[in-house]
Design brief:
Layout lengths: L9 H12 L2 H10 L23 H14 L2 H14 L5 H8 L4 E2 L3 H8 L7 E7 L5 H6 L3 E7 L3 H9 L3 E3 L13 E5 L8 H11 L6 E7 L6 E3 L2 E3 L12 H14 L2 E14 L6 E13 L1
Parallel strand pairs: 2-3, 2-5, 3-4, 5-6
Antiparallel strand pairs: 1-9, 6-10, 7-8, 9-10
Helix pairs in contact: 4-5, 5-8
GO molecular function, one term: protein-L-histidine N-pros-methyltransferase activity
Pfam family, one: DREV
Protein name: Methyltransferase-like protein 9
Length: 295
């Protein structure tokens, strides 16, 4: 039986230790903790709308695929080398789009349907996905809509979106199309944009005022910064998020959304997953996912 001390290559040794660190028992314990919320710490208005999520089939498929891809040594070495080369003049997001790597996962089709309280056959007209990345999360929502619009700043990610046949709008175009959207998704974007409060108000202005809904995800704890030419900068507009633990920060977002013209219709805690590399099978952050309705 091979052990880590017999592996001479640092890369191979790292991969071996990564596999050993993900024993089945610790794997399942860690995954269940992704969904834990202390509802006693939520404010009274949020307790009735909290939806308890869990590791489901769709999430497991993404994890299995990520684990498999992280162990393709030749491809991971190629990605590592090309990332080092391109990092001199491209952002991390653009590099991932160019290499077709680093896909993200926010929710499964079943989790999406459960939050919106819809069935698998439910259809609506127009979806807008802001900051859609490579479109893999858009793909989860797209079966429910006739028209799908997306925005993205990275040109290499735009190429990925165009290959998927989505209608790409310019960053300053989606607010001025002359029509409204039935659902707008804003997934892990507020902490990476320069004017998050303004963005929320712009979303409110173009959302269908009665049946329209926003599905919004935000990484907590809240650490806003903007990627600008490979550099990280503070946003010019401050969005007040207070509290030390996940539940406290969720509570403070109630007022942020209210000032932008929204009420929270549903809330859950989900892992924000990203495909891994030769060192980690996948990467994970804590997401708060909200369904917002206009008020």
């Amino acid at each position: 039986m091979w052990t880590g001390q017999h592996l001479r290559s640092p890369v191979t040794r790292s991969m071996y230790m990564n596999m050993m660190n993900h024993s089945e028992a610790s794997y399942w314990k860690e995954n269940q903790e992704w969904y834990v919320c202390d509802t006693g710490k939520l404010c009274e208005s949020l307790r009735p709308v909290f939806v308890q999520s869990f590791l489901d089939h769709g999430t497991q498929i993404f994890l299995n695929r990520s684990i498999e891809k992280s162990r393709w040594l030749s491809i991971q070495l190629y990605h590592s080398f090309m990332s080092s080369v391109f990092s001199m003049f491209l952002s991390r997001t653009s590099i991932n789009g160019l290499l077709g790597r680093g896909s993200m996962f926010v929710f499964s089709p079943e989790q999406f349907q459960r939050l919106l309280k819809i069935n698998p056959d439910w259809k609506s007209y127009r979806l807008l996905d802001l900051g859609a990345g490579d479109g893999e999360v858009t793909k989860v929502m797209s079966p429910h809509f006739e028209e799908i619009y997306v925005t993205e700043m990275s040109q290499t990610m735009i190429w990925q979106l165009q290959k998927k046949k989505y209608r790409v709008l310019e960053i300053d175009e989606w607010q001025n199309t002359g029509f409204q959207y039935d659902v707008i998704s804003c997934l892990n974007l507020l902490d990476r944009c320069d004017r998050p409060v303004t963005l929320l108000k712009e979303i409110r202005n173009v959302l269908e005022p009665t049946r329209g809904r926003v599905i919004l995800a935000l990484v907590l704890p809240f650490h806003p910064y903007v990627e600008n030419g490979g550099k990280w900068e503070k946003p010019s507009e401050v969005m007040e998020v207070n509290g030390k633990v996940w539940e406290e920060q969720v509570n403070s977002l109630t007022e942020v959304f209210h000032e932008a013209g929204f009420a929270i219709e549903a809330l859950t805690r989900l892992p924000y997953l990203c495909e891994g590399d030769m060192y980690n099978d996948y990467y994970v952050l804590d997401d708060a996912v909200f369904i917002l309705k206009p008020v």
